[in-house]
Write a structure and sequence with these properties.
6 strands, 1 helix, mainly beta, four-stranded antiparallel β-sheet, flat
Length: about 140
C-alpha cells in the first residue's frame, strides 16, 4: 500500500501558481508483508513445493494424439513480409503393465513445423522427435 501526504514547503519564490507556497507530495510506504529476501529462486522453490497440493491429474492416458495447426501472417521483425507456419504433431503412448500396482509408460512424440526462416527465403521443415519413458505407481486407492 502506498499513501501520499501533502507537505507544505516554504521558500517558494519561483512557483507563481500557489502564491508563494509550494505543496510537495511525500510518499509514505507501508507493507503488510515484507519478505526478508527477494530471491526469485526461493519463490520458485516454494511454488514448486506447494503446487502439487492444489492440482489434480486425469486418471487415463491418451494412447494416440494427432494435431494440425496453421497460423497466417506472422510478420518478420524489421520487414514488411510475413510467413505462415504449418504445424503437425503426433504423440503415441504405450503403457506396459508390470504388476497390479506399477506400469511402465513409454512413447514417442513427433513434431513438424513448416515456415520461412528469413523474409525472402524458401519454406523450411523443422522436425523434432522425443522418446518418452516413465513409471506409474499406485500407492493406495487415493494416491497413485
Amino acid at each position: 500500500m502506498r499513501f501520499y501526504k501533502v507537505a507544505k514547503v516554504r521558500n517558494s519564490a519561483e512557483n507563481r501558481y500557489t502564491h508563494g507556497v509550494v505543496y510537495d507530495l511525500v510518499k509514505l510506504e507501508f507493507s503488510i508483508f515484507k519478505p526478508t529476501t527477494t530471491n526469485p529462486l526461493r519463490k520458485t522453490l516454494l511454488l514448486l513445493l506447494f503446487l502439487p497440493f492444489f492440482s489434480e491429474a486425469q486418471n487415463y492416458v491418451d494412447l494416440m494424439r494427432i494435431g494440425y495447426g496453421q497460423t497466417l501472417n506472422n510478420d518478420f521483425e524489421g520487414s514488411l513480409e510475413s510467413t505462415e507456419v504449418k504445424s503437425l504433431e503426433a504423440d503415441l503412448t504405450f503403457p506396459l503393465v508390470i504388476n497390479e500396482k506399477q506400469a511402465l509408460i513409454t512413447g514417442l512424440t513427433f513434431s513438424r513445423n513448416r515456415l520461412q526462416l528469413f523474409p525472402a527465403g524458401m519454406h523450411t521443415n523443422l522436425f523434432s522427435t522425443t522418446l518418452k519413458i516413465g513409471m506409474a505407481s499406485t500407492w493406495s486407492e487415493k494416491w497413485s
